[in-house]
Amino acid sequence: TQAMRGSLELLPLWFLVLAAGGTGHTYRPSRRVCAVARAALGPTSESFAQRVYQPFLTTCDGHRACSTYRTIYRTAYRHGPVLAPARPRFACCPGWKRTGGLPGACATAICQPPCGNGGSCVWPGRCHCPAGWQGNTCHKDVDECSSGGAGCPQ
């Protein structure tokens, strides 16, 4: 019970650690995940203190009415297209695409042009060819008969 109470006392601390760190590690740049810098450009509103001169009547010497002014400040807003900082977005690096639902899961390579004749893309621009085919995109037929070996299907 003593150990259990100690564990329960640490529970709020764990929630604090999780809230601060969250799952951000999943979305950080890595070998196949790149940070894409972006900024939000659009109509923004910015507040500022605007000086206003306000006329008013007061009594001067001899109980006469005099006009004067006082300075007051009010909150005003400026509107305009201002470049506002935005959080970075994480996307798959060139040559990779998302696998599954997580943004950080960029495990599928992209081959352009695509692999042919049953080949599979194992790295961006690199195909793994089945028997009988070779080359960057598995489009070059291997001539098994030129070597004079057995298994010549041609």
From TrEMBL:
Q: Which GO terms describe its cellular component?
A: cell surface; extracellular region
Q: Is the keyword Manganese assigned to this protein?
A: no
Query: Per its UniProt record, what PROSITE patterns does this chain match?
Result: EGF_1 (PS00022), EGF_2 (PS01186), EGF_3 (PS50026), EMI (PS51041)
Q: List the disulfide bonds.
A: C111-C121, C129-C138
Signal peptide annotation: 1-24
- Keyword annotations from UniProtKB, A to Z: Angiogenesis, Calcium, Cell adhesion, Coiled coil, Developmental protein, Differentiation, Disulfide bond, EGF-like domain, Repeat, Secreted, Signal
Q: Which Pfam families does the entry link to?
A: EGF_2 (PF07974), EMI (PF07546)
Q: What is its main location?
A: secreted
Organism superkingdom: Eukaryota
Locate the EGF-like domain: which residues? Answer: 107-139
One GO biological-process annotation of the entry reads: angiogenesis
Q: Does the keyword Phosphoprotein apply?
A: no
In what residue span(s) does the EMI domain sit? 30-108
Molecular functions (GO terms)? signaling receptor binding
The places in or outside the cell where this protein is found are: Secreted, Extracellular space
Its subunit composition reads: Interacts with ITGAV/ITGB3 in an RGD-dependent manner, increasing endothelial cell's motility.
- Function according to Swiss-Prot or TrEMBL: Regulates vascular tubulogenesis in vivo. Inhibits platelet-derived growth factor (PDGF)-BB-induced smooth muscle cell migration and promotes endothelial cell adhesion to the extracellular matrix and angiogenesis.
Put simply, this protein is called Epidermal growth factor-like protein 7
